[in-house]
Amino acid sequence: MVVSVLMVAEKPSIAQTLADALSPGHKYSSRTGASPACKVHEYEGDFYGQRAWFKVTSCAGHVYSIDFPPEYNNWDRVEPLTLFGAPTVKQEANPKLRMPKHFQTEAKGCSYLVLWLDCDREGENICFEVIDNAVPYMSSAGSQQQVWRAQFSSLAPVDLKKAMATLGSPNKDMSDSVDARAEMDLKLGCAFTRFQTKYFQGKYGDLDTNLVSYGPCQTPTLWFCVRRSDEINAFQPESFYTIDVTVAKAGRDLQAQWDRGQVFDMPIASLFMNIIQDDNAKAVVNDVSQKEDRQARPQALNTVAMLKMASTRLGLGPQQAMHMAERLYLDGYLTYPRTETNTYPKNFDLQGAVRAQSGHPAWGSYSQQLLSNGLARPREGVDMGDHPPITPVRAATEGQLGDAYRLYDMITRHFLATVSGDCKFLRTRVNFTIVGEGFSVSGRKVIDPGFTAIQRSGEMEDVIIPDFKKGETIEIKRVSMGSHKTRPPSYLSESDLLSLMEKHGIGTDASMATHINNICERNYVKLAEGRRLIPTQLGIALVHGYQMVDNELVIPKVRANMEKNCTLVADGKAEVLPVVQHCLRLFREKFIYYVTNVELVDQLFETIFKSLEAAGRPLSRCGDCQRYLSVVDRKPVRMFCKTCNRIFKMPQNGQMKLYKELKCPLDNFELVFVANKVGKSYPICPMCYDDPPFGAREEQGKHWNLDHPIYKKYRPAVMSCIADNCSGTLCLDVDSGPKWQIDCNVCLQQLSIFEDKAHKIKATSDTCEECGSVLLEVIFNKGKSPLPDGELERKACLVCDEIFNTHTVSKTGKNFFRRNPGKGKDIQCICQGKGKGKKGKGGKGKMRRTQRVPLGGLWRV
DNA sequence: GCAAGGTC
């Protein structure tokens, strides 16, 4: 019997590597599965003594990502503090890839599942995402273990085969630690980000960011930049002095180095100066030494090293470099670009990789030379067991790669450099004394350029000096005292920042570039010349603000502590729940403290940014207070009412003007015209745009021009809502007759009038004598009136629940109709005049009739 | 609209 085995890798390229390594004779067929991204490779082989049909496929990273349920994603209605205790849901990380479906279909009929995900915590976590989708659809494996985990430390065929022979089980603890980290990151990141964003955007009109974000990785990343900027600002320059001696030999002037380097005392420097300046002073050579020195060939490239080099040598930002490297990887030019390993695995085919370059127009001959002379043994480094260092796979020209060629060129030259010899050079040092003070002149001559022949930036220039002999006297050409000042350090470069992040464990090889990009995008730092990161006033205010409130919010320790706690979970020394709860409780406290002390941060913002009021320009009238709303034209574009203390989100693109001074029929706000250069121009109501009426939440942010169906459905502004604390407007649903319904456009309270009976209602200019509310005019159909006769006009007060007959066209004279409020209770009709009620009980001239009030009468529902 | 982590 042939059993089926499903094997799953972390990404498509590894599935292919697996099939190549494990299928007998490299014979396998490939097809597309339910996911457009992940192929399925199939072959027949042996699985622990059974004949088996193998299906090798992959994920594309995580199947799921964590988020809040939709109801928690409304920034206006959810208090950020509640996020700490909010539930979370797992969503498909990329629904287009249809990964769950992919595993469900491939799992059918399989008895065994072998998980080949990357051997790190994230990989372990993805194992369980796969298990959740696959196992319920698999066939029984009898008494055998059904789910297996391959543990491999390299992707070399030998290692993969070894892993296949020694399968283990997935580690739930490691997986749990990832869930723990994800939940904490989500909750505290979102809580702080939402609070800060709303707080500062509600106060300032010229914040130059859409989002005032906080995160356990991005915030410490910013902290590094601000700390350096603080150091620069606090820097006090100090004077120091040098003795600059120029000697001459063979017609050449040579600048000598003073053995003391520099002194910080002016009198001392002058003293030496006086001694040396003596007319009789002589420079006598006391030593000439020559030493062979070498510059070591570089280490193999891992991600961080590549990003640093791309930044310093190519001027490419980490994010940009990462994208290029990914492209080159996907197109088969490079090995996987996300790796921490900077040493080649033992069985890495270095020869093959060099041979692949031997036909290249720029470095083909160099590669051939390397091959014929023999490759140098690469330097040792760290093997993290994830992926080999970043290495070119096949040769490519500028024509093939376009823009990305620069990066490819850098990586390939670097690769060739790692298997080239060291750069050897001869250092010559001539020591001489002038009245007992030591000086020297140095020269350098390259003996063997080694790797610098291919890695241009490593190139060294010769410094040739004439020959000197011990004991000889040299001519002193000039002596002077140099006065200098110590200089502050520079702003951090991208490369410096990457090093710091790596050192402090902020982010991963795959995410560091994103964190740096984030702080740029949020306008916390600006990229300056030499790819240096200068914090903006916003970035500085934020970091200094955190420091004043709670320094632990911003220092790298924040991340380190979380990681430490997650490690406890991964090592099985702690349970997920208590760890997550502990950390969240801690951060909840920090959050509360931050919120209560945010004024400290705000003090810093105050000096930098303009208040909403100062930044806005008056545009249109508020529907509630009839004063002018102001618009803040910079993003996020918003309007605000100073009097009502309310902010209205507005469309982010387009010029805003007043629209014919027309008012929104629903809420009386003056309409605003949004003029777009591209696309449509349209009028909107600030209120309806920000908070769509009648619960049309899903339409938030959409255009609410006057053609919107909701404006046709409702006859507006019947009167103000009668609910407590509601400023809404009661609007008549024009489609609802004859069972007329009146809805509040804000609190959504629904009222209805005279089920089945009323013909038409509208607002009048009369008010109720008792409560002062606007009275509605209610017109009944002839014959359908609860009253015996004809067509009546009445006015109704929604607040007092009363209806007044004001006029009748019947012959029965003046009627008065009153109703006792309450569902199911009787209403009474008292006809005054000469009417004749069917069941009239009153005497002459007075008629009484009772009728059961239908449910859904004239009271709140 | 938010975090950080995978990868496409």
TrEMBL record:
Coiled coil: none annotated. Residues 4-153 form the Toprim domain. It is found in: Mitochondrion. It catalyses: ATP-independent breakage of single-stranded DNA, followed by passage and rejoining. Residues 171-592 form the Topo IA-type catalytic domain. One of its GO terms (molecular function) is DNA binding. One of its GO terms (cellular component) is mitochondrion. Keywords: DNA-binding, Elongation factor, Isomerase, Mitochondrion, Protein biosynthesis, Topoisomerase. Its main location: mitochondrion. One of its GO terms (biological process) is DNA topological change. Associates with the EF-Tu.GDP complex and induces the exchange of GDP to GTP. It remains bound to the aminoacyl-tRNA.EF-Tu.GTP complex up to the GTP hydrolysis stage on the ribosome. Belongs to the EF-Ts family. This is Elongation factor Ts, mitochondrial. The lineage of its organism: Eukaryota, Sar, Alveolata, Dinophyceae, Suessiales. The chain holds residues 1 to 861 of 1268 of the full protein.
